[in-house]
Automatic annotation (TrEMBL):
<dbReference type="Pfam" id="PF00266">
    <property type="entry name" value="Aminotran_5"/>
</dbReference>
<dbReference type="InterPro" id="IPR015421">
    <property type="entry name" value="PyrdxlP-dep_Trfase_major"/>
</dbReference>
<dbReference type="GO" id="GO:0004760">
    <property type="term" value="F:L-serine-pyruvate transaminase activity"/>
</dbReference>
<dbReference type="InterPro" id="IPR015422">
    <property type="entry name" value="PyrdxlP-dep_Trfase_small"/>
</dbReference>
<feature type="binding site">
    <location>
        <position position="341"/>
    </location>
    <ligand>
        <name>substrate</name>
    </ligand>
</feature>
<dbReference type="InterPro" id="IPR000192">
    <property type="entry name" value="Aminotrans_V_dom"/>
</dbReference>
<comment type="similarity">
    <text>Belongs to the class-V pyridoxal-phosphate-dependent aminotransferase family.</text>
</comment>
<keyword id="KW-0663">Pyridoxal phosphate</keyword>
<keyword id="KW-0808">Transferase</keyword>
<dbReference type="GO" id="GO:0019265">
    <property type="term" value="P:glycine biosynthetic process, by transamination of glyoxylate"/>
</dbReference>
<dbReference type="InterPro" id="IPR015424">
    <property type="entry name" value="PyrdxlP-dep_Trfase"/>
</dbReference>
<keyword id="KW-0032">Aminotransferase</keyword>
<dbReference type="InterPro" id="IPR024169">
    <property type="entry name" value="SP_NH2Trfase/AEP_transaminase"/>
</dbReference>
<feature type="domain" description="Aminotransferase class V">
    <location>
        <begin position="31"/>
        <end position="331"/>
    </location>
</feature>
<comment type="pathway">
    <text>One-carbon metabolism; formaldehyde assimilation via serine pathway.</text>
</comment>
<protein>
    <recommendedName>
        <fullName>Serine--glyoxylate aminotransferase</fullName>
        <ecNumber>2.6.1.45</ecNumber>
    </recommendedName>
</protein>
<feature type="modified residue" description="N6-(pyridoxal phosphate)lysine">
    <location>
        <position position="196"/>
    </location>
</feature>
Amino acid sequence: MHQGRHFLQIPGPSPVPDRILRAMDMPVIDHRSAEFGELGRAVLEGSQKIFQTSGPVVIFPSSVTGAWEAAIVNTLSPGDRVLMVETGHFATLWRQMAGRFGIEVDFIPGDWRRGADPAQIEAKLAADSARAIKAVMVVHNETSTGATSRIADIRAAIDRAGHPALLMVDTISSLGSVDYRHDEWKVDVSVSCSQKGFMLPPGLGFNAVSEKARAASKTNRMPRSYFDWEEMLKPNAKGFFPYTPATNLLYGLREAIAMLLEEGLDNVFARHQRLAAATRAAVNHWGLEVLCQEPAEFSPVLTAVLMPPGHDADQFRKVVLDNYNMSLGSGLSKVAGKVFRIGHLGECNALTLLGALTGVEMGLSVAGVPHRSGGVEVAMKLLEQRTPGNSSPHLKAVST
Ligand SMILES: *Cc1c(COP(=O)(O)O)cnc(C)c1O
């Protein structure tokens, strides 16, 4: 029997704030009504602010997998070549999907301990004198490893190579948590979802679309129906959808956007950086190893921790769940059983994180995993100092 709130410390789906739960607790309305049109316009325009784009954002009732598919089928044709980077499990899944659509993927191998290397991408593009590569497709925050690729640097690498390839980025676990600029970084398709930085339940998939991507969608040869951008963009102009949308998730989305903008995106990003730094300090103190090896790419959203040899990460996660009612993220595919992941995104503040780290430290003791105690205190010291990111962003809204 578990009392109190479950600690959902996986890197998505992330916990849904009460304010969003209340915003979604509404009757379903007529999706052809004027009232719906206002909601539709509010979330379509609001989403642009979060992607930092003035271009269209398409919102599908779908998982991320659907939004990945939309990015591919609207821009590429069977037989096209693309460049992708093996940053981890999610990059590998997106690559598999591209293959199923007949795309020829040049997959730069990786060791799952760092982000995509801009220099390697530049070299590949520079060598492509025929300009056959149609797109560079990378995962911004690789949720399976806790490494965040440097998209601005990748953009610069593409520009240095003078290559016309589209840039498509999976911002699934970064959007609304890590600085991300669709327009400034000249990204052509940004793929995202509801259940991570937006703090919503799963069920919405997003594509932010550049003019260049939209132009590609007018000439590419790939059959599509449900995920066709143009079918969406026509009714979207007035806030409507071509089919019944996920109305109540859109109520939640309107609230989530308001919360992110009230806190201020810069404060949101700084809060995630702070929580991540405190987490790594605790992990280092315990004497455990962070999976990501490149400090410039440490993820603000999650920290993947390597188990010492001879100890199973899933057994440890079970001890934590059974004893403390907390879910930690599992290791996926190549790193299954070898790592556990601590999510620190979305509705997470200093005390939430300290609760989570306390559960990890107690779990290490109970599971008999060798470690040095006192990691939580080290994190406390780092989080003691009061900063804007340390206070509740939601107090203001509650009291007014
Ligand atoms: C969470 C996550 C996904 C999950 O996709 P679903 O289809 O919604 O299960 C994909 N990619 C990344 C990078 C993620 O973090």
